Amino acid sequence: MQEGKFLEYLITEYEGILQTSRPEGAGREPEMMTLVEPLCKLGDWTERGAAEIVRLVRDYGAFMLRNALALAVVLGKEDGDLGL
């Protein structure tokens, strides 16, 4: 699968997970760490992996992570050294 299509699929998947985690009231953003449990239950992440991905998003945001993704793809780095 091409990386762009895979990314589109993941965005759709995480939008669905976010919908289940969003507090009552449209447009309210969930507390970042409240996403760990739904990522584990619905996204098949371990608790450690879910906490790490939430931390990465909180600390770095989309700009930095897009660039990291592009570099990882070019380098062929599918899985990291941490084994998550």
What can you tell me about this protein's structure?
By secondary structure, the protein is mostly helical. Helix content is 67%, strand content 0%. It contains three helices and no strands. Helix 1 packs across helix 2 and helix 2 crosses helix 3. The longest helix is centred in the C-terminal third of the chain and has 29 residues. The protein is globular and about 40 Å long. The model has no long low-confidence stretch (mean pLDDT 85).
Task: Describe the largest sheet.
Answer: none
Please state the structural category. Answer: mainly alpha
Radius of gyration using CA atoms only: 14 Å
Terminal CA distance:
21 Å
Any idea what the shape is?
globular
Proportion in β-strands: under 5%
The beta-strand count equals: 0
The residue fraction in helices comes out at 55-70%
